[in-house]
Design a protein that fits this description.
Blueprint (H helix, E strand, L loop, with lengths): L1 E4 L6 H21 L10 E5 L4 E7 L8 E6 L2 E6 L11 H4 L13 E6 L4 E9 L2 E8 L26
Protein name: SHSP domain-containing protein
Family: Belongs to the small heat shock protein (HSP20) family.
Pfam family, one: HSP20
């Protein structure tokens, strides 16, 4: 399970270190033949306009009934579970022979995002292997950033004393 804080301004250093860890994990997985420690589909966060965002996950081959999206207590949870297996522990897709190589991951996953209380999930769609979750930021005027002007103090006039 992965936990992410959703922010309109994600930390660049978090992304860099997370990406490095994921690359190392994938490299060792390729060398050993094991599955990566934690599979999570790649995702993008895009700001559509001032108050709307889109979270897009790459989920090729997944069907709508295999994906669940839930919002509870400030947590957005996206779960992917494969179809039910047959008695011989093979899925319906695997029973159809002819595979020479299977490189597209169909590993179950669970992603969690902490979303601020003023952000609401508006919709979700699955198209061409991309799951898109729409988010809307509802800020009150008192919560919006305010620019504070800096006033410059007028210089005092120098008085000349004749003495």
């Amino acid at each position: 399970m992965s936990l992410h804080d959703f922010s309109a301004y994600p930390s660049l250093t978090d992304a860099v270190f997370s990406d490095r860890f994921n690359r190392i994990d994938r490299l060792f997985s390729q060398l050993t033949g094991d599955l990566p420690v934690s599979f999570k589909p790649p995702y993008d966060i895009r700001q559509m306009d001032e108050n709307r965002f889109a979270l897009s996950l790459s989920v090729p081959g997944w069907k709508e009934h295999e994906l669940e999206i839930e919002v509870t207590g400030g947590r957005l949870t996206i779960v992917g579970k494969k179809e039910v297996k047959f008695d011989d522990n093979r899925s319906a897709e695997e029973t159809q022979g002819g595979w020479l190589h299977k490189g597209i991951s169909r590993t179950d996953f669970c992603l969690n995002y902490a979303i601020p209380e003023h952000m609401k999930v508006t919709d979700a769609s699955l198209e061409d292997g991309i799951l898109t979750v729409g988010l809307h930021q509802e800020l009150l005027e008192s919560q919006k950033p305010q620019r504070i002007p800096i006033h410059q103090k007028a210089p005092e006039a120098l008085e000349q004393k004749n003495g």
